[in-house]
Specification:
The chain is mainly β. It is built from two helices and 21 strands. The chain has three domains: about 80 residues, no CATH class; about 30 residues, no CATH class; about 100 residues, no CATH class. The strands form seven sheets. Strands 5-4-3-6 form a four-stranded antiparallel β-sheet, with no helix packed on it. It has a four-stranded antiparallel β-sheet with strand order 15-14-17-19. It has a four-stranded mixed β-sheet with strand order 16-21-20-18, with no helix packed on it.
C-alpha cells in the first residue's frame, strides 16, 4: 500500500511516481490526497489492464552501497542483499469472472488468479423405449431400451421423452408418416405410439430419434436408437395351380 508523503511546511501531499496502464494505451498516475490511481478513460473493470509500472528513477541505497528499485504491483523496494524479503501482501480487490464467480490476487505478482474454465460435459437426455404387444393387446415385452425381436402377429410400440431439447426427428420405419399425421413436425419432443393408437410398421432395421437445441447449450445432435428384428414368416409352399382340375399334384387318378 502506498503511504502518502506529507510535507510539514504547507501540508501538501506528494504521491509516488508510478503509473498504471489503461486499456486504451494511456497511463494514469496517483492522485493526492489518497494517492490512489486516477480512473482510466471510460474505465471498465472487466477489461482494465491491472499492470502497474513503478517509478524507475526512485531507488534506495542499501548498506553495502548497492541500490534497489521498487517492484510492482505494490511498488515496494526490493530487499537489499543479505536482507530477507518482506512477505508480499496483495490488495484485497476481486475480479468477477464470466460464470459469476470471483477471484482475488495471488502473490508474489499480485495478478488476479485465472477464472474457472467451463468444462463441457456432453450429455444425452433422450429417453427412447420400445415394447411389443400381442394381437389381443396384451404385453409380450414391457418397455425397454434394448434391441428387440418382434414375432409374427405382434405389434411394435415406441415412447420417448426429449423435453429438454428444441427439435427432434423420428425414424420409425414409416417414411415419416407419424411425423406427418401427428402434425407436430420436429416439435414432437415426447410421444407414445401405443397410447396414441399409431400402428408402427414391423421391419428389420434401426428405429431412432435425433434431437438438437438442447437446453443446456450443447450444440451437438443427440441420438438414441433401437435395433429391431422382424421374425421371418414361414415360407408357404406354392399352391398347385391345377388342383381341382386334375386332382392334387402328384396324385394318380
Amino acid at each position: 500500500m502506498q503511504v502518502p508523503i506529507t510535507l510539514p511546511i504547507d501540508d501538501t501531499v506528494a504521491c509516488t511516481m508510478e503509473v498504471r496502464l489503461c486499456p486504451d494505451g494511456s497511463y494514469v498516475g496517483r492522485v493526492a490526497p489518497s494517492c490512489e490511481f486516477a480512473a482510466c478513460p471510460k474505465e471498465d473493470s472487466a477489461t482494465e489492464d491491472d499492470t502497474v509500472y513503478c517509478a524507475a528513477m526512485v531507488v534506495k541505497q542499501c548498506p553495502d552501497g548497492s541500490f534497489v528499485r521498487p517492484v510492482a504491483p505494490l511498488c515496494e523496494y526490493e530487499a537489499c542483499p543479505g536482507e530477507a524479503a518482506s512477505p508480499v501482501s496483495c490488495p484485497a480487490d476481486a475480479k468477477i469472472c464470466p460464470d459469476g464467480s470471483t477471484v482475488g490476487r495471488v502473490a508474489p505478482s499480485c495478478t488476479f488468479a485465472a477464472c474457472p474454465t467451463k468444462e463441457t460435459v456432453e450429455t444425452n437426455d433422450i429417453s427412447f423405449e420400445v415394447t411389443t404387444r400381442n394381437a389381443d393387446g396384451s404385453t409380450s415385452l414391457d418397455w425397454t431400451t434394448d434391441d428387440v425381436t418382434v414375432q409374427q402377429g405382434q405389434q411394435l410400440g415406441f415412447r420417448w421423452d426429449a423435453s429438454s431439447y428444441g427439435r427432434c426427428l423420428l425414424f420409425l420405419g414409416d417414411d415419416g408418416l407419424y411425423t406427418l399425421l401427428s402434425g407436430r413436425g420436429a416439435e414432437a419432443l415426447s410421444g407414445n405410439t401405443v397410447a396414441e393408437g399409431y400402428d408402427v410398421p414391423e421391419r428389420t432395421g434401426v428405429y431412432r430419434i435425433e434431437c438438437s437445441e438442447q437446453a443446456n447449450g450443447e450444440g451437438a445432435t443427440d441420438t438414441q436408437e433401437i435395433n429391431v428384428t422382424a421374425a421371418v414368416r414361414a415360407t408357404e409352399l406354392p399352391r398347385n395351380p391345377f388342383t381341382g382340375l386334375f386332382g392334387s399334384w402328384g396324385t394318380t387318378q
